[in-house]
Write a structure and sequence with these properties.
The protein is an alpha/beta fold and 285 residues long. The chain has one domain: TIM Barrel (Alpha-Beta Barrel). Helix content is 38%, strand content 15%. The protein is built from nine helices and ten strands. The strands form two sheets. It has an eight-stranded parallel beta sheet. It has a two-stranded antiparallel sheet with strand order 1-2. α1 crosses α2, α2 packs parallel to α3 and α8 packs parallel to α9. The longest helix has 19 residues. The relative contact order is 0.14.
Length: 285
């Protein structure tokens, strides 16, 4: 008897500089943090040689998108200037564009000036953890540039989000957040919008699992769903281990996310995610 569990359907293409990318098969977005203090891979890829080696590894392992960030969003991370963030990400974007001109690049930033500079340097997508809340110019920049936009749910900022976990109804409030901002973006003319529920951002461990279990509710938005679970504390704290030991847990939760409709997995471990997607698609072709 056929299983009743089916991934939901939503928008199935992504327009990147005039080229349509299919989302019929889930995509893998590889994380490239050019920061000294990210929670898992901080200070690993800051030198030119280390950066090139990491990019080549990501390409060889089959990253569909490379997401480049220069500002750590972990709680307690140092605040840096816009200038410093730009100085970190632009060389990485240019190096990635040189090594893999065909792979879409995403800029992970909540600052419109950084987003604009990154798009000028060759980035294709803006991935904003703040959903436009920390820079009122972000939506306008994305609209003017015609860039796809990843709209993430977060309360506060990275330094205050851990104190903003009081929800009357988590799923309802996250849904309303997305509906309101999607309407704003569409009004401005943004055509390619993705949503990220923001695991670990203004959510407790228990709330993260409620969110994961109920991902299917977001199908009503009819936009692609990006999920970032990779090596997060909801995994390693639950299993009482370090982030470095959390790969198996990441693969398990990524599988659950795929079963609940994720179109893009944002991960540190690209090969493992590709294998997860392959086995998922074998089960749900």
């Amino acid at each position: 008897m056929e299983s009743k569990v089916k991934p939901f359907s939503s928008k199935k293409t992504l327009n990147l500089r005039g080229k349509l990318y299919s989302l019929d098969n889930p995509l893998v977005m590889g994380i490239l943090n050019v920061t000294p203090d990210s929670f898992y891979d901080g200070n690993q890829f800051n030198g030119e040689s280390a950066l090139i080696n990491r990019l080549e590894q990501m390409i060889n392992e089959g990253a569909d998108i490379i997401d480049i960030g220069g500002y750590s969003s972990r709680p307690g991370a140092d605040k840096i200037s816009i200038h410093e963030e730009i100085e970190r990400v632009i060389p990485a974007i240019m190096q990635a564009r040189s090594l893999a001109p065909e792979i879409p690049l995403s800029i992970d930033t909540f600052r419109s000036d950084v987003a604009a500079a990154a798009l000028d340097a060759g980035a294709d997508i803006v991935n904003d953890i703040s959903g436009g809340n920390l820079d009122p110019s972000m939506f306008q920049i994305v609209a003017e540039r015609g860039a796809p936009y990843v709209l993430m749910h977060m309360r506060g900022d990275p330094s205050t989000m851990s104190y903003k976990t009081d929800y009357e109804n988590l799923i309802t409030q996250v849904m309303k957040y997305f509906v309101d901002r999607i309407e704003q973006l569409i009004t401005l003319g943004v055509k390619d919008i993705l949503v990220d529920p923001g695991f670990g951002f203004a959510k407790t461990t228990s709330q993260n699992y409620v969110l994961l279990k109920n991902l299917g509710y977001f199908k009503e938005l009819n936009v692609p769903l990006l999920v970032g679970l990779s090596r997060k504390s909801m995994i390693y704290k639950t299993l009482k281990m370090s982030a470095g030991e959390a790969l198996t847990g990441t693969c398990v939760l990524n599988t659950i996310a795929l079963m609940n409709g994720a179109s893009i997995l944002r991960v540190h471990d690209i090969r493992a995610a590709r294998e997860t997607v392959s086995l998922f698609k074998r089960t749900y072709p």
